[in-house]
Design brief:
Tumour Suppressor Smad4, 4-stranded antiparallel beta sheet, binds N-((E,2S,3R)-1,3-dihydroxyoctadec-4-EN-2-yl)hexanamide, 12 helices, binds calcium ion, PH-domain like, alpha+beta, 23 strands, binds adenosine-5'-triphosphate, 555 residues, 14-stranded mixed beta sheet
Amino acid sequence: MERPSRQLLLSELRIRNTAYDVSLSRSLLTWKRRVSSPVYHPFRPSVCHSVSVSEIISVREEEEESSSRQRDDGSWKKIKEREGKDCRQAFTVLYVERSRQHRWRCAEVTFMCPDEALCQRWVSSIREQLNAIASRPKRLLVYINPYGGKRQGKHIYEQKVAPLFAQAGISTHVIVTEYANYARDHLKTEAELKTFDGVVCVGGDGMFSEIIHGLIWRTQIDGGVDPNCPEESLLPCSLRIGIIPAGSTDCICFATVGTNDPVTSALHIIVGDSQPMDVCSVHHNNTFLRYSVSLLGYGFYGDVLTDSERKRWMGPARYDLSGVKMFLTHHYYEGTVSYLPARGIVGTPRDAARCRSGCVVCQHNGQLLSEKAERYKVDEASDNESDGEWRTIRGKFLAINAASMSCACPRSPKGLSPAAHLADGTTDLILVRKCSRFNFLRHLLRHTSKDDQFDLTFVEVHRVRRFRFTPRHCQSDSDLELDLQEHGKRQIFSQICRDHPACSCAPAYSSWNCDGEILTHTAIDVRVHCQLIKLFARGIEEPTVFEDLTNPCAI
Ligand SMILES: Nc1ncnc2c1ncn2[C@@H]1O[C@H](COP(=O)(O)OP(=O)(O)OP(=O)(O)O)[C@@H](O)[C@H]1O
Ligand SMILES: CCCCCCCCCCCCC/C=C/[C@@H](O)[C@H](CO)NC(=O)CCCCC
Ligand SMILES: [Ca+2]
Protein backbone atom coordinates (compact mmCIF):
# COMPACT_ATOMS: atom_id res chain seq x y z
CA MET A 1 0.00 0.00 0.00
CA GLU A 2 1.30 3.46 -0.94
CA ARG A 3 1.79 5.78 2.05
CA PRO A 4 0.37 9.29 1.98
CA SER A 5 3.22 11.69 1.15
CA ARG A 6 4.74 14.11 3.73
CA GLN A 7 2.70 17.13 4.78
CA LEU A 8 3.81 20.50 3.44
CA LEU A 9 1.29 22.50 5.46
CA LEU A 10 -1.08 21.76 8.31
CA SER A 11 -3.33 24.49 9.78
CA GLU A 12 -6.57 24.97 11.54
CA LEU A 13 -8.77 26.90 9.07
CA ARG A 14 -12.48 27.60 8.93
CA ILE A 15 -15.05 26.71 6.29
CA ARG A 16 -17.98 28.98 6.98
CA ASN A 17 -18.20 28.80 10.77
CA THR A 18 -16.72 25.38 11.28
CA ALA A 19 -13.11 24.61 12.18
CA TYR A 20 -11.17 22.13 10.04
CA ASP A 21 -7.70 20.63 10.14
CA VAL A 22 -6.46 21.35 6.67
CA SER A 23 -3.35 19.67 5.31
CA LEU A 24 -1.44 19.79 2.06
CA SER A 25 1.00 17.14 0.87
CA ARG A 26 2.54 16.74 -2.58
CA SER A 27 -0.37 14.56 -3.60
CA LEU A 28 -3.39 15.54 -1.51
CA LEU A 29 -5.30 18.47 -0.06
CA THR A 30 -7.35 17.26 2.88
CA TRP A 31 -9.78 19.02 5.19
CA LYS A 32 -11.13 17.24 8.24
CA ARG A 33 -13.67 18.69 10.63
CA ARG A 34 -12.31 19.21 14.13
CA VAL A 35 -14.08 16.97 16.57
CA SER A 36 -15.13 19.11 19.51
CA SER A 37 -17.03 16.33 21.22
CA PRO A 38 -16.34 12.63 20.96
CA VAL A 39 -20.10 11.94 20.84
CA TYR A 40 -21.16 10.17 17.66
CA HIS A 41 -23.49 12.23 15.45
CA PRO A 42 -25.38 9.91 13.10
CA PHE A 43 -26.93 12.75 11.07
CA ARG A 44 -23.81 14.83 10.51
CA PRO A 45 -22.52 14.76 6.93
CA SER A 46 -19.08 13.41 6.08
CA VAL A 47 -16.38 15.22 8.06
CA CYS A 48 -13.35 14.56 5.91
CA HIS A 49 -12.70 15.57 2.32
CA SER A 50 -9.70 14.89 0.22
CA VAL A 51 -8.73 16.12 -3.24
CA SER A 52 -5.81 14.93 -5.30
CA VAL A 53 -3.45 17.85 -6.04
CA SER A 54 -3.43 16.70 -9.65
CA GLU A 55 -7.18 17.43 -9.74
CA ILE A 56 -7.02 20.94 -8.29
CA ILE A 57 -7.96 23.36 -11.04
CA SER A 58 -6.74 26.55 -9.39
CA VAL A 59 -6.55 28.53 -6.18
CA ARG A 60 -7.59 32.15 -5.77
CA GLU A 61 -7.39 34.65 -2.99
CA GLU A 62 -10.66 36.21 -1.95
CA GLU A 63 -10.45 39.96 -2.17
CA GLU A 64 -13.82 41.14 -0.88
CA GLU A 65 -13.81 43.94 1.68
CA SER A 66 -15.33 42.58 4.96
CA SER A 67 -18.34 41.79 2.90
CA SER A 68 -20.38 39.05 1.41
CA ARG A 69 -20.02 37.30 -1.88
CA GLN A 70 -22.71 35.61 -3.86
CA ARG A 71 -22.36 31.89 -4.41
CA ASP A 72 -23.38 30.09 -7.58
CA ASP A 73 -26.55 28.89 -5.86
CA GLY A 74 -27.58 32.46 -5.06
CA SER A 75 -26.86 32.35 -1.30
CA TRP A 76 -24.32 34.69 0.32
CA LYS A 77 -21.19 33.74 2.15
CA LYS A 78 -19.23 35.89 4.55
CA ILE A 79 -15.60 36.21 3.67
CA LYS A 80 -14.39 38.30 6.55
CA GLU A 81 -15.92 38.93 9.88
CA ARG A 82 -13.52 41.47 11.42
CA GLU A 83 -13.69 45.13 10.45
CA GLY A 84 -11.11 47.59 9.22
CA LYS A 85 -8.44 45.10 8.18
CA ASP A 86 -7.02 44.17 4.81
CA CYS A 87 -9.14 41.36 3.52
CA ARG A 88 -6.76 38.73 2.05
CA GLN A 89 -7.56 36.16 4.67
CA ALA A 90 -9.54 33.68 2.69
CA PHE A 91 -8.70 31.56 -0.31
CA THR A 92 -10.80 29.37 -2.58
CA VAL A 93 -9.70 26.09 -4.11
CA LEU A 94 -11.38 24.95 -7.33
CA TYR A 95 -11.19 21.22 -7.91
CA VAL A 96 -12.59 18.33 -9.93
CA GLU A 97 -15.60 16.59 -8.48
CA ARG A 98 -16.90 13.37 -10.02
CA SER A 99 -20.57 13.23 -10.84
CA ARG A 100 -22.81 10.60 -12.46
CA GLN A 101 -21.89 8.74 -15.67
CA HIS A 102 -18.24 9.83 -15.89
CA ARG A 103 -19.10 13.52 -15.71
CA TRP A 104 -16.74 15.87 -13.97
CA ARG A 105 -17.75 19.14 -12.35
CA CYS A 106 -15.80 22.10 -11.03
CA ALA A 107 -16.41 22.33 -7.27
CA GLU A 108 -15.00 24.95 -4.90
CA VAL A 109 -14.26 25.33 -1.23
CA THR A 110 -13.31 28.56 0.60
CA PHE A 111 -10.98 28.42 3.59
CA MET A 112 -10.78 31.31 6.07
CA CYS A 113 -7.44 31.90 7.70
CA PRO A 114 -6.66 33.54 11.06
CA ASP A 115 -4.13 35.91 9.45
CA GLU A 116 -3.00 37.15 6.09
CA ALA A 117 0.47 35.62 6.23
CA LEU A 118 -0.97 32.15 6.66
CA CYS A 119 -3.42 32.74 3.82
CA GLN A 120 -0.53 33.75 1.57
CA ARG A 121 1.45 30.66 2.55
CA TRP A 122 -1.43 28.42 1.64
CA VAL A 123 -2.05 30.09 -1.69
CA SER A 124 1.59 30.05 -2.74
CA SER A 125 2.14 26.46 -1.57
CA ILE A 126 -0.83 25.21 -3.60
CA ARG A 127 0.24 27.26 -6.63
CA GLU A 128 3.77 25.86 -6.32
CA GLN A 129 2.38 22.32 -6.39
CA LEU A 130 0.24 23.09 -9.43
CA ASN A 131 3.10 24.76 -11.30
CA ALA A 132 5.23 21.66 -10.71
CA ILE A 133 2.82 19.54 -12.75
CA ALA A 134 4.63 19.63 -16.08
CA SER A 135 1.87 17.86 -18.00
CA ARG A 136 -0.60 20.76 -17.64
CA PRO A 137 -1.03 22.88 -20.76
CA LYS A 138 -0.44 26.63 -20.48
CA ARG A 139 -1.16 27.75 -24.03
CA LEU A 140 -3.70 26.16 -26.34
CA LEU A 141 -4.68 26.56 -29.97
CA VAL A 142 -8.47 26.25 -30.22
CA TYR A 143 -10.47 25.60 -33.41
CA ILE A 144 -14.25 25.98 -33.31
CA ASN A 145 -16.54 24.55 -35.99
CA PRO A 146 -19.60 26.82 -35.80
CA TYR A 147 -21.65 24.44 -37.98
CA GLY A 148 -21.07 21.03 -36.30
CA GLY A 149 -23.92 19.11 -34.61
CA LYS A 150 -26.67 21.51 -33.53
CA ARG A 151 -24.51 24.54 -34.46
CA GLN A 152 -23.76 25.27 -30.82
CA GLY A 153 -19.95 25.05 -30.95
CA LYS A 154 -19.23 28.76 -30.42
CA HIS A 155 -21.81 29.12 -27.69
CA ILE A 156 -20.60 25.99 -25.86
CA TYR A 157 -17.01 27.19 -25.95
CA GLU A 158 -17.74 30.74 -24.81
CA GLN A 159 -20.21 29.82 -22.06
CA LYS A 160 -18.81 26.60 -20.63
CA VAL A 161 -15.17 26.21 -21.57
CA ALA A 162 -13.47 29.60 -21.89
CA PRO A 163 -14.30 30.62 -18.27
CA LEU A 164 -12.73 27.38 -16.96
CA PHE A 165 -9.57 27.86 -19.05
CA ALA A 166 -9.32 31.44 -17.73
CA GLN A 167 -9.69 30.25 -14.13
CA ALA A 168 -6.96 27.68 -14.69
CA GLY A 169 -4.63 30.34 -16.11
CA ILE A 170 -4.55 28.79 -19.59
CA SER A 171 -4.11 31.25 -22.43
CA THR A 172 -5.74 30.47 -25.76
CA HIS A 173 -5.61 31.42 -29.40
CA VAL A 174 -9.12 30.82 -30.72
CA ILE A 175 -9.92 30.34 -34.40
CA VAL A 176 -13.51 29.98 -35.62
CA THR A 177 -13.30 28.02 -38.86
CA GLU A 178 -14.61 29.68 -42.01
CA TYR A 179 -15.07 26.60 -44.19
CA ALA A 180 -14.50 22.84 -44.17
CA ASN A 181 -10.80 21.88 -43.90
CA TYR A 182 -9.85 25.35 -42.69
CA ALA A 183 -8.42 23.92 -39.43
CA ARG A 184 -6.65 21.07 -41.26
CA ASP A 185 -4.92 23.37 -43.71
CA HIS A 186 -4.03 25.92 -41.05
CA LEU A 187 -2.35 23.18 -39.01
CA LYS A 188 -0.59 21.73 -42.07
CA THR A 189 1.09 24.92 -43.13
CA GLU A 190 0.60 28.02 -41.01
CA ALA A 191 0.10 27.31 -37.32
CA GLU A 192 3.07 28.18 -35.08
CA LEU A 193 2.91 24.82 -33.33
CA LYS A 194 5.98 25.39 -31.17
CA THR A 195 4.21 28.11 -29.21
CA PHE A 196 1.40 25.79 -28.04
CA ASP A 197 1.10 22.91 -25.57
CA GLY A 198 -1.92 21.42 -27.30
CA VAL A 199 -4.69 21.80 -29.86
CA VAL A 200 -8.37 21.85 -28.92
CA CYS A 201 -11.20 21.19 -31.34
CA VAL A 202 -14.75 22.25 -30.63
CA GLY A 203 -16.99 20.15 -32.85
CA GLY A 204 -17.67 16.54 -33.71
CA ASP A 205 -15.74 13.60 -35.09
CA GLY A 206 -15.38 15.35 -38.46
CA MET A 207 -13.72 18.32 -36.84
CA PHE A 208 -11.44 16.04 -34.83
CA SER A 209 -10.55 14.31 -38.06
CA GLU A 210 -9.49 17.65 -39.56
CA ILE A 211 -7.21 18.28 -36.58
CA ILE A 212 -5.47 14.89 -36.75
CA HIS A 213 -5.01 15.20 -40.51
CA GLY A 214 -3.35 18.58 -40.06
CA LEU A 215 -1.15 17.49 -37.15
CA ILE A 216 -0.10 14.08 -38.47
CA TRP A 217 0.68 15.45 -41.94
CA ARG A 218 2.71 18.35 -40.53
CA THR A 219 4.65 16.01 -38.21
CA GLN A 220 5.60 13.71 -41.12
CA ILE A 221 6.61 16.54 -43.46
CA ASP A 222 8.69 18.25 -40.73
CA GLY A 223 10.31 14.89 -39.94
CA GLY A 224 11.03 13.92 -43.55
CA VAL A 225 8.58 11.00 -43.69
CA ASP A 226 6.60 10.41 -46.90
CA PRO A 227 2.90 10.11 -45.92
CA ASN A 228 2.06 8.62 -49.33
CA CYS A 229 4.10 5.51 -48.73
CA PRO A 230 2.00 2.89 -46.90
CA GLU A 231 5.15 1.08 -45.71
CA GLU A 232 6.59 4.07 -43.85
CA SER A 233 6.41 4.09 -40.06
CA LEU A 234 4.81 7.39 -39.13
CA LEU A 235 6.27 9.77 -36.55
CA PRO A 236 4.09 10.31 -33.46
CA CYS A 237 2.66 13.79 -32.93
CA SER A 238 3.97 15.63 -29.91
CA LEU A 239 1.02 17.98 -29.31
CA ARG A 240 -1.94 16.56 -27.42
CA ILE A 241 -5.47 17.11 -28.72
CA GLY A 242 -8.49 18.08 -26.64
CA ILE A 243 -12.05 17.49 -27.83
CA ILE A 244 -14.89 19.71 -26.70
CA PRO A 245 -17.89 17.73 -27.98
CA ALA A 246 -20.23 19.78 -30.17
CA GLY A 247 -20.99 17.38 -33.02
CA SER A 248 -23.58 14.76 -33.93
CA THR A 249 -22.00 11.45 -32.84
CA ASP A 250 -18.93 12.60 -30.87
CA CYS A 251 -17.83 9.01 -30.69
CA ILE A 252 -14.13 9.77 -30.11
CA CYS A 253 -14.92 11.94 -27.12
CA PHE A 254 -17.43 9.43 -25.72
CA ALA A 255 -15.07 6.47 -26.10
CA THR A 256 -12.10 8.25 -24.50
CA VAL A 257 -13.84 10.11 -21.67
CA GLY A 258 -17.05 8.14 -21.12
CA THR A 259 -19.42 11.04 -21.73
CA ASN A 260 -20.08 13.85 -24.20
CA ASP A 261 -19.97 16.80 -21.87
CA PRO A 262 -18.02 20.01 -22.65
CA VAL A 263 -17.23 20.80 -18.99
CA THR A 264 -15.85 17.30 -18.34
CA SER A 265 -13.65 17.53 -21.45
CA ALA A 266 -12.42 21.01 -20.48
CA LEU A 267 -11.43 19.69 -17.03
CA HIS A 268 -9.52 16.75 -18.54
CA ILE A 269 -7.60 19.30 -20.64
CA ILE A 270 -6.88 21.54 -17.64
CA VAL A 271 -5.51 18.74 -15.45
CA GLY A 272 -3.24 17.71 -18.35
CA ASP A 273 -4.47 14.16 -18.94
CA SER A 274 -2.87 12.09 -21.65
CA GLN A 275 -4.37 9.17 -23.59
CA PRO A 276 -2.44 7.66 -26.50
CA MET A 277 -4.46 6.51 -29.52
CA ASP A 278 -3.97 4.28 -32.53
CA VAL A 279 -4.43 5.76 -36.00
CA CYS A 280 -5.07 3.83 -39.23
CA SER A 281 -3.58 5.15 -42.44
CA VAL A 282 -5.68 4.43 -45.54
CA HIS A 283 -3.98 4.19 -48.93
CA HIS A 284 -5.02 3.37 -52.47
CA ASN A 285 -2.28 2.29 -54.89
CA ASN A 286 0.49 3.95 -52.88
CA THR A 287 -1.47 7.17 -52.58
CA PHE A 288 -2.53 8.44 -49.19
CA LEU A 289 -6.29 8.82 -48.76
CA ARG A 290 -7.08 9.47 -45.08
CA TYR A 291 -6.40 8.66 -41.45
CA SER A 292 -8.98 6.96 -39.25
CA VAL A 293 -9.22 6.51 -35.48
CA SER A 294 -12.71 5.11 -35.02
CA LEU A 295 -14.73 3.44 -37.80
CA LEU A 296 -13.82 2.42 -41.30
CA GLY A 297 -17.06 0.99 -42.62
CA TYR A 298 -18.01 -0.33 -46.07
CA GLY A 299 -21.55 -1.41 -46.92
CA PHE A 300 -24.09 -0.47 -44.26
CA TYR A 301 -22.20 2.34 -42.50
CA GLY A 302 -20.83 3.70 -45.78
CA ASP A 303 -24.35 3.81 -47.24
CA VAL A 304 -25.81 5.38 -44.09
CA LEU A 305 -23.21 8.13 -44.28
CA THR A 306 -23.67 8.77 -48.00
CA ASP A 307 -27.42 9.02 -47.55
CA SER A 308 -27.20 11.15 -44.39
CA GLU A 309 -24.87 13.74 -45.98
CA ARG A 310 -27.82 14.80 -48.16
CA LYS A 311 -29.80 15.41 -44.96
CA ARG A 312 -27.22 17.48 -43.06
CA TRP A 313 -29.84 20.17 -42.46
CA MET A 314 -31.62 17.71 -40.12
CA GLY A 315 -28.72 17.71 -37.65
CA PRO A 316 -27.92 14.54 -35.64
CA ALA A 317 -31.34 12.96 -36.46
CA ARG A 318 -30.14 12.41 -40.05
CA TYR A 319 -28.27 9.26 -38.98
CA ASP A 320 -31.43 7.65 -37.55
CA LEU A 321 -33.43 8.26 -40.69
CA SER A 322 -30.67 7.07 -43.02
CA GLY A 323 -29.99 4.12 -40.70
CA VAL A 324 -33.56 2.86 -41.03
CA LYS A 325 -33.60 3.54 -44.79
CA MET A 326 -30.36 1.65 -45.42
CA PHE A 327 -31.46 -1.19 -43.20
CA LEU A 328 -34.60 -1.58 -45.34
CA THR A 329 -32.60 -1.26 -48.58
CA HIS A 330 -30.49 -4.26 -47.46
CA HIS A 331 -27.69 -4.00 -50.02
CA TYR A 332 -24.82 -6.44 -49.97
CA TYR A 333 -21.47 -6.07 -51.71
CA GLU A 334 -18.96 -8.55 -53.06
CA GLY A 335 -15.26 -8.33 -52.60
CA THR A 336 -12.08 -9.69 -51.13
CA VAL A 337 -10.77 -8.85 -47.69
CA SER A 338 -7.16 -9.73 -46.83
CA TYR A 339 -5.79 -9.15 -43.38
CA LEU A 340 -2.70 -9.58 -41.27
CA PRO A 341 -3.77 -11.00 -37.89
CA ALA A 342 -2.26 -9.32 -34.83
CA ARG A 343 0.03 -11.89 -33.23
CA GLY A 344 1.88 -11.93 -29.93
CA ILE A 345 -0.49 -9.45 -28.36
CA VAL A 346 -2.74 -9.66 -25.32
CA GLY A 347 -6.50 -9.51 -25.88
CA THR A 348 -9.12 -10.65 -28.38
CA PRO A 349 -12.24 -8.95 -29.78
CA ARG A 350 -14.42 -11.36 -27.77
CA ASP A 351 -12.93 -10.49 -24.37
CA ALA A 352 -15.25 -9.53 -21.54
CA ALA A 353 -12.69 -6.99 -20.28
CA ARG A 354 -12.93 -3.42 -21.59
CA CYS A 355 -10.29 -0.82 -22.39
CA ARG A 356 -10.33 1.48 -19.39
CA SER A 357 -8.20 4.20 -17.82
CA GLY A 358 -4.62 2.93 -17.40
CA CYS A 359 -5.39 -0.12 -19.60
CA VAL A 360 -2.72 -2.80 -19.15
CA VAL A 361 -3.46 -4.37 -22.54
CA CYS A 362 -2.65 -1.09 -24.30
CA GLN A 363 0.50 -0.67 -22.20
CA HIS A 364 1.68 -4.21 -22.86
CA ASN A 365 0.96 -4.22 -26.59
CA GLY A 366 2.30 -0.69 -27.06
CA GLN A 367 5.55 -1.69 -25.37
CA LEU A 368 5.77 -4.87 -27.45
CA LEU A 369 5.35 -2.96 -30.70
CA SER A 370 7.89 -0.27 -29.84
CA GLU A 371 10.46 -2.95 -28.93
CA LYS A 372 9.76 -4.66 -32.22
CA ALA A 373 10.16 -1.37 -34.10
CA GLU A 374 13.53 -0.87 -32.42
CA ARG A 375 14.66 -4.33 -33.51
CA TYR A 376 13.64 -3.67 -37.11
CA LYS A 377 15.67 -0.47 -37.13
CA VAL A 378 18.78 -2.51 -36.35
CA ASP A 379 18.02 -5.33 -38.75
CA GLU A 380 17.05 -3.59 -41.99
CA ALA A 381 16.56 -6.87 -43.82
CA SER A 382 13.71 -7.99 -41.55
CA ASP A 383 10.30 -8.16 -43.04
CA ASN A 384 7.94 -5.82 -41.27
CA GLU A 385 5.10 -8.23 -41.73
CA SER A 386 6.92 -11.34 -40.60
CA ASP A 387 4.82 -11.69 -37.45
CA GLY A 388 1.95 -13.21 -39.33
CA GLU A 389 0.67 -14.35 -42.65
CA TRP A 390 -1.95 -12.67 -44.73
CA ARG A 391 -5.33 -14.37 -44.82
CA THR A 392 -7.93 -13.82 -47.50
CA ILE A 393 -11.72 -14.00 -47.38
CA ARG A 394 -13.95 -13.52 -50.40
CA GLY A 395 -17.65 -13.11 -50.12
CA LYS A 396 -20.83 -11.09 -50.10
CA PHE A 397 -20.97 -8.67 -47.23
CA LEU A 398 -23.66 -6.44 -45.77
CA ALA A 399 -20.99 -4.64 -43.81
CA ILE A 400 -17.22 -4.62 -43.46
CA ASN A 401 -16.24 -2.60 -40.42
CA ALA A 402 -12.86 -1.89 -38.89
CA ALA A 403 -13.11 -0.46 -35.38
CA SER A 404 -9.77 0.80 -34.04
CA MET A 405 -11.48 1.53 -30.74
CA SER A 406 -14.86 0.55 -29.29
CA CYS A 407 -16.72 3.35 -31.19
CA ALA A 408 -18.97 3.70 -28.16
CA CYS A 409 -21.36 6.63 -28.50
CA PRO A 410 -24.74 7.57 -27.04
CA ARG A 411 -26.45 5.56 -29.84
CA SER A 412 -24.49 2.46 -28.86
CA PRO A 413 -22.94 2.81 -25.39
CA LYS A 414 -20.86 -0.37 -25.75
CA GLY A 415 -19.89 0.41 -29.35
CA LEU A 416 -19.24 -1.48 -32.55
CA SER A 417 -16.47 -3.54 -30.98
CA PRO A 418 -16.90 -3.35 -27.21
CA ALA A 419 -13.55 -5.01 -26.39
CA ALA A 420 -11.44 -2.95 -28.83
CA HIS A 421 -8.56 -0.95 -27.36
CA LEU A 422 -7.67 2.69 -27.81
CA ALA A 423 -3.94 2.20 -28.00
CA ASP A 424 -2.99 -1.45 -28.59
CA GLY A 425 -1.84 -1.08 -32.19
CA THR A 426 -4.70 -3.13 -33.65
CA THR A 427 -8.10 -2.71 -35.27
CA ASP A 428 -11.05 -5.12 -35.03
CA LEU A 429 -12.14 -6.22 -38.49
CA ILE A 430 -15.83 -7.16 -38.40
CA LEU A 431 -17.31 -8.97 -41.40
CA VAL A 432 -21.08 -9.23 -41.63
CA ARG A 433 -21.92 -11.63 -44.43
CA LYS A 434 -25.05 -11.51 -46.51
CA CYS A 435 -27.97 -12.69 -44.37
CA SER A 436 -31.71 -12.09 -44.03
CA ARG A 437 -33.05 -8.69 -42.95
CA PHE A 438 -34.26 -10.29 -39.74
CA ASN A 439 -30.79 -11.59 -38.90
CA PHE A 440 -29.13 -8.29 -39.78
CA LEU A 441 -31.58 -6.51 -37.48
CA ARG A 442 -30.68 -8.95 -34.69
CA HIS A 443 -27.02 -8.07 -35.23
CA LEU A 444 -27.68 -4.29 -35.27
CA LEU A 445 -29.94 -4.33 -32.23
CA ARG A 446 -27.29 -6.17 -30.24
CA HIS A 447 -25.17 -2.99 -30.45
CA THR A 448 -27.66 -1.46 -28.07
CA SER A 449 -28.14 -4.37 -25.64
CA LYS A 450 -25.97 -6.63 -23.50
CA ASP A 451 -26.06 -9.44 -26.08
CA ASP A 452 -22.94 -10.26 -28.09
CA GLN A 453 -23.22 -8.87 -31.63
CA PHE A 454 -20.48 -11.24 -32.81
CA ASP A 455 -22.19 -14.41 -31.59
CA LEU A 456 -24.00 -14.98 -34.89
CA THR A 457 -23.08 -17.43 -37.66
CA PHE A 458 -22.89 -14.72 -40.35
CA VAL A 459 -20.60 -12.41 -38.33
CA GLU A 460 -16.87 -12.85 -37.83
CA VAL A 461 -14.35 -10.61 -36.13
CA HIS A 462 -10.55 -10.57 -36.31
CA ARG A 463 -8.03 -8.42 -34.47
CA VAL A 464 -5.63 -7.20 -37.16
CA ARG A 465 -2.67 -4.91 -37.81
CA ARG A 466 -3.36 -4.40 -41.47
CA PHE A 467 -6.04 -5.19 -44.03
CA ARG A 468 -6.90 -4.65 -47.66
CA PHE A 469 -10.20 -4.62 -49.47
CA THR A 470 -10.88 -5.01 -53.17
CA PRO A 471 -14.46 -4.81 -54.46
CA ARG A 472 -15.29 -7.63 -56.80
CA HIS A 473 -15.31 -5.55 -59.97
CA CYS A 474 -11.80 -4.30 -59.23
CA GLN A 475 -10.46 -7.83 -58.83
CA SER A 476 -7.64 -8.94 -61.05
CA ASP A 477 -8.21 -11.21 -64.07
CA SER A 478 -6.74 -14.16 -62.18
CA ASP A 479 -9.24 -13.63 -59.33
CA LEU A 480 -12.11 -13.55 -61.80
CA GLU A 481 -10.73 -16.68 -63.42
CA LEU A 482 -10.87 -18.33 -60.02
CA ASP A 483 -14.48 -17.21 -59.69
CA LEU A 484 -15.29 -18.84 -63.03
CA GLN A 485 -13.78 -22.11 -61.90
CA GLU A 486 -15.54 -21.98 -58.55
CA HIS A 487 -19.04 -21.05 -59.63
CA GLY A 488 -19.35 -21.82 -63.29
CA LYS A 489 -19.81 -19.40 -66.13
CA ARG A 490 -23.54 -19.08 -66.04
CA GLN A 491 -23.66 -17.96 -62.44
CA ILE A 492 -20.87 -15.42 -62.97
CA PHE A 493 -22.54 -13.74 -65.90
CA SER A 494 -25.88 -13.52 -64.18
CA GLN A 495 -24.07 -12.06 -61.16
CA ILE A 496 -22.24 -9.41 -63.21
CA CYS A 497 -25.51 -8.49 -64.87
CA ARG A 498 -27.29 -8.28 -61.51
CA ASP A 499 -24.54 -6.13 -59.95
CA HIS A 500 -24.08 -3.75 -62.82
CA PRO A 501 -25.76 -0.45 -61.94
CA ALA A 502 -26.95 0.06 -65.52
CA CYS A 503 -29.12 -3.02 -65.61
CA SER A 504 -30.19 -3.77 -62.07
CA CYS A 505 -31.32 -2.19 -58.84
CA ALA A 506 -28.48 -3.43 -56.62
CA PRO A 507 -25.30 -1.32 -56.79
CA ALA A 508 -21.92 -3.00 -57.20
CA TYR A 509 -20.10 -0.61 -54.91
CA SER A 510 -20.65 0.97 -51.56
CA SER A 511 -18.41 3.70 -50.12
CA TRP A 512 -16.09 3.67 -47.16
CA ASN A 513 -17.21 5.63 -44.14
CA CYS A 514 -13.93 6.84 -42.65
CA ASP A 515 -14.68 8.41 -39.24
CA GLY A 516 -17.78 9.99 -40.76
CA GLU A 517 -16.17 11.14 -44.04
CA ILE A 518 -16.76 9.42 -47.38
CA LEU A 519 -13.67 7.98 -49.08
CA THR A 520 -13.15 8.50 -52.78
CA HIS A 521 -11.90 4.95 -53.42
CA THR A 522 -13.30 1.54 -52.65
CA ALA A 523 -10.08 -0.53 -52.97
CA ILE A 524 -8.01 0.36 -49.92
CA ASP A 525 -4.95 -0.67 -47.95
CA VAL A 526 -5.18 0.00 -44.21
CA ARG A 527 -2.42 -0.07 -41.64
CA VAL A 528 -2.60 0.60 -37.88
CA HIS A 529 -0.02 2.95 -36.38
CA CYS A 530 0.20 2.24 -32.66
CA GLN A 531 -0.23 5.28 -30.37
CA LEU A 532 0.41 7.85 -33.09
CA ILE A 533 -1.50 10.63 -31.36
CA LYS A 534 -2.34 11.66 -27.79
CA LEU A 535 -5.52 13.16 -26.40
CA PHE A 536 -6.17 15.25 -23.31
CA ALA A 537 -8.12 12.34 -21.80
CA ARG A 538 -7.41 9.31 -19.59
CA GLY A 539 -9.73 6.65 -20.98
CA ILE A 540 -13.00 5.74 -19.31
CA GLU A 541 -12.63 5.51 -15.54
CA GLU A 542 -13.93 2.45 -13.70
CA PRO A 543 -16.45 3.42 -11.03
CA THR A 544 -14.63 3.19 -7.69
CA VAL A 545 -15.96 0.32 -5.61
CA PHE A 546 -13.66 0.75 -2.65
CA GLU A 547 -12.30 3.92 -1.09
CA ASP A 548 -8.82 4.86 -2.23
CA LEU A 549 -6.45 3.44 0.40
CA THR A 550 -3.92 6.24 -0.17
CA ASN A 551 -6.58 8.70 0.91
CA PRO A 552 -6.10 9.50 4.60
CA CYS A 553 -9.86 10.11 4.90
CA ALA A 554 -10.42 6.44 4.12
CA ILE A 555 -8.07 5.11 6.77
N1 LIG B 1 -16.76 26.68 -40.95
C1 LIG B 1 -17.17 25.54 -41.49
N2 LIG B 1 -18.13 25.53 -42.43
C2 LIG B 1 -18.59 24.37 -42.97
N3 LIG B 1 -18.12 23.15 -42.62
C3 LIG B 1 -17.14 23.10 -41.68
C4 LIG B 1 -16.62 24.28 -41.08
N4 LIG B 1 -15.67 23.92 -40.18
C5 LIG B 1 -15.60 22.57 -40.23
N5 LIG B 1 -16.47 22.07 -41.13
C6 LIG B 1 -16.75 20.65 -41.49
O1 LIG B 1 -17.98 20.26 -40.89
C7 LIG B 1 -18.04 18.84 -40.86
C8 LIG B 1 -18.86 18.33 -39.70
O2 LIG B 1 -18.36 18.82 -38.54
P1 LIG B 1 -18.39 18.13 -37.12
O3 LIG B 1 -17.67 16.87 -37.12
O4 LIG B 1 -17.90 19.17 -36.18
O5 LIG B 1 -19.94 17.88 -36.82
P2 LIG B 1 -20.92 16.67 -37.12
O6 LIG B 1 -20.65 16.07 -38.43
O7 LIG B 1 -22.26 17.20 -36.85
O8 LIG B 1 -20.59 15.67 -35.98
P3 LIG B 1 -20.00 14.15 -35.99
O9 LIG B 1 -18.80 14.18 -36.87
O10 LIG B 1 -19.68 13.89 -34.55
O11 LIG B 1 -21.09 13.25 -36.52
C9 LIG B 1 -16.60 18.38 -40.80
O12 LIG B 1 -16.38 17.52 -41.87
C10 LIG B 1 -15.76 19.64 -40.94
O13 LIG B 1 -14.72 19.46 -41.87
C1 LIG C 1 -32.34 -0.19 -37.66
C2 LIG C 1 -31.80 0.46 -36.45
C3 LIG C 1 -30.57 -0.17 -35.91
C4 LIG C 1 -29.90 0.59 -34.81
C5 LIG C 1 -28.48 0.15 -34.64
C6 LIG C 1 -27.62 1.12 -33.91
C7 LIG C 1 -26.16 0.83 -34.12
C8 LIG C 1 -25.37 2.02 -33.74
C9 LIG C 1 -23.89 1.84 -33.96
C10 LIG C 1 -23.22 3.15 -33.87
C11 LIG C 1 -21.84 3.09 -34.41
C12 LIG C 1 -21.21 4.43 -34.48
C13 LIG C 1 -19.87 4.36 -35.10
C14 LIG C 1 -19.28 5.72 -35.18
C15 LIG C 1 -18.88 6.26 -36.28
C16 LIG C 1 -18.28 7.61 -36.35
O1 LIG C 1 -16.94 7.50 -36.68
C17 LIG C 1 -18.96 8.46 -37.42
C18 LIG C 1 -18.51 9.88 -37.31
O2 LIG C 1 -19.12 10.53 -36.29
N1 LIG C 1 -20.39 8.42 -37.29
C19 LIG C 1 -21.13 7.90 -38.23
O3 LIG C 1 -20.70 7.47 -39.25
C20 LIG C 1 -22.62 7.86 -37.93
C21 LIG C 1 -23.13 6.45 -38.03
C22 LIG C 1 -24.49 6.30 -37.43
C23 LIG C 1 -25.02 4.93 -37.64
C24 LIG C 1 -26.43 4.72 -37.18
CA1 LIG D 1 -6.82 -0.17 -31.24
